[in-house]
């Protein structure tokens, strides 16, 4: 297997891992004002992701660094052309991060409610615009002979991309509901279970439309298989949640996100950023790649350090594996 293929797969895996792990983070943030009916309940919801949310963001940082080193032309065209969309995601992540840290610094309800609103807003922004970005990467954008983006921000807010954003927002929110059902106990857990059932149904419609559109316009045989598995995983999550098997339901939404992201990258391959103005100007895994020497050095570095990072993050999840209850929250 060529190094360009290996690193395309590596970046796809990193983004997929990020969407699985940060996806339920976003979902918890979106559901904060919906499921949390008191300060203690909202505090309990935040505590389910408190020890892990910032570690989950390491995946996207690593993905961006890998893209920069392995496919510098892809990185340059994407970050220069999509800067407003990526800036919206960054704003959302900053708002969330600050809110998590500052929420507990005040003692008044108004103070906490203001930061809760920031968590909700930041989660919605990031969850929605990640879908818009990925959809535009698969669809392609106008590029010139220098691989520079020649369109406007309004061209990035096309119907396909907006449907992608709605799909990721709803899917991550559903993912968060199943996570809360698994990680909490009592009334919050039961409300999350009931809401998760309704969210799964609501997610199915735009998700099916987006995936069918993707397959019809840009898909391949592999992407079709992954998209079918994505749909089956979402159905399985609904049935498992309905039967009260929260752990398996959450595992199914993890699989749903994984198959959806993998299907999009499969539809993209062998391109990394197609050109809609002139196909000859599109970026592929070959013409966007760094030198073989660079890719070789990166491969050895990844082989050494990636297992360490995975072991550390796995240990973190194991340490904080217990359910969070309202009773643990001081009055």
UniProtKB/TrEMBL annotation:
Annotated GO MF terms: electron transfer activity; metal ion binding; oxidoreductase activity, acting on diphenols and related substances as donors, oxygen as acceptor
Membrane topology: Multi-pass membrane protein
Residue ranges of the TM segments: 6-35, 82-102, 114-138, 158-180, 192-213, 219-240, 247-269, 297-320
Subcellular location field: Cell membrane
Organism superkingdom: Bacteria
InterPro entries: Cyt-d_oxidase_su2
UniProt keyword terms in alphabetical order: Cell membrane, Electron transport, Heme, Iron, Membrane, Metal-binding, Transmembrane, Transmembrane helix, Transport
Primary location recorded for the protein, binned into one broad class: membrane
GO BP term, pick one: aerobic electron transport chain
GO cellular component assignments: cytochrome complex; plasma membrane
Pfam families given in the database record: Cyt_bd_oxida_II (PF02322)
Family: Belongs to the cytochrome ubiquinol oxidase subunit 2 family.
This protein's name: Cytochrome d ubiquinol oxidase subunit II
The species this protein was found in: Glycomyces buryatensis
Gene name per UniProt: cydB
């Amino acid at each position: 297997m060529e190094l360009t293929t290996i690193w395309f797969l590596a970046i796809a895996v990193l983004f997929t891992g990020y969407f699985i792990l940060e996806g339920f983070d976003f979902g918890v943030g979106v559901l904060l004002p919906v499921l949390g009916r008191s300060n203690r309940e909202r505090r309990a919801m935040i505590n389910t992701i408190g020890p892990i949310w910032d570690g989950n963001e390491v995946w996207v940082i690593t993905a961006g660094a890998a893209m920069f080193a392995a496919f510098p032309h892809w990185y340059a065209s994407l970050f220069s052309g999509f800067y407003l969309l990526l800036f919206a995601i960054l704003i959302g992540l900053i708002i969330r991060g600050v809110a998590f840290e500052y929420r507990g610094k005040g003692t008044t309800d108004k103070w906490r409610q203001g930061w809760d609103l920031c968590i909700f807003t930041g989660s919605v922004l990031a969850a929605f615009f990640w879908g818009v970005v990925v959809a535009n990467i698969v669809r392609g954008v106008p590029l010139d002979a220098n691989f520079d983006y020649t369109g406007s921000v309004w061209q990035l807010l096309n119907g396909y991309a907006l449907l992608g954003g709605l799909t990721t927002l709803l899917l991550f929110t559903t993912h968060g509901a199943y996570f809360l059902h698994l990680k909490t106990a009592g009334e919050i857990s039961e409300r999350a279970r009931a809401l998760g059932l309704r969210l799964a149904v609501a997610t199915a419609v735009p998700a099916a439309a987006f995936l069918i559109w993707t397959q019809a316009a840009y898909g391949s045989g592999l992407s079709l298989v992954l998209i079918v598995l994505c749909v089956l995983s979402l159905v399985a999550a609904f049935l498992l949640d309905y039967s009260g098997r929260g752990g398996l339901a959450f595992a199914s939404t993890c699989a749903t996100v994984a198959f959806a992201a993998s299907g999009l990258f499969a539809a993209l391959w062998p391109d990394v950023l197609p050109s809609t103005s002139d196909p000859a100007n599109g970026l592929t895994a070959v013409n966007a790649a760094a030198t073989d020497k660079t890719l070789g050095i990166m491969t050895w570095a990844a082989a050494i350090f990636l297992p360490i990072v995975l072991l550390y993050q796995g240990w973190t999840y194991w340490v904080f594996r217990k359910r969070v209850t309202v009773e643990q929250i001081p009055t």
